[in-house]
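It would be a great kindness if you could assist me with a short task in structural biology. The matter concerns a single protein, recorded as an amino acid sequence and a row of backbone structure tokens. Kindly check, if you would, that the fold set down in the tokens agrees with what the sequence suggests. Thank you for your consideration; the sequence and its tokens are set out here:
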Amino acid sequence: MTPPGARGAVAGHRLARGVVHTVWRPRVLGAWRVPPAGPLILAVNHTHNVDGPLLFGTAPRPVSFLVKREAFVGPLGAFLRGVGQIRVDREATDLAAVRAARGVLERGGVLGVFPEGTRGNGDFTAVRAGLAYFALRSGAPIQPVAVLGSDRQGRLVRSLPPLRGRVDVVVGEPFTVGGGGGSRRGRAALDRATDEIRVRLAAHLRDARLTTGR
């Protein structure tokens, strides 16, 4: 039987695809690089609140994102849980979120992570160790994704990118850290993997900007 979180992510993926392609004009480059099956971690830069929904609606596969706990309020919280998203406390070690995220990877699903931890310049200069932890423990490949244009301000709804405006989603080549075997542990291995991830993600972002002219 498909786990409830996976069913929700599939349903949410279909819904988000329709919404995202109605509200904006996303251009996805490199979607063919996404493995069709197996555990995968999407590492996405983060400049706007819509980055998660944009990926949710444009990724070739359903994604379960680690989403800040502040978003899980009222009807929105119920909706996020229903579509397979994972509530995480960014201020503490959230063991429940860690178990849920590892569960997504163990069943061969796609885990979405914002490595910078919060919105900012979206340039991957500060990458938290959580991404390396999941990659090392699971052996899952990391797929870098650059979202470009979501930080533009619309005229009608100033808190959102321009309606029917173009947003580029650039998918890079997946890579593994620590040999990809899922057995390396310890602080030194975590630090090395985090450094490698930061360099690779920054390089992908530079290439994406050159490709799109953004």
In short: The domain at 6-212 is CATH 3.40.1130.10 (Glycerol-3-phosphate (1)-acyltransferase).
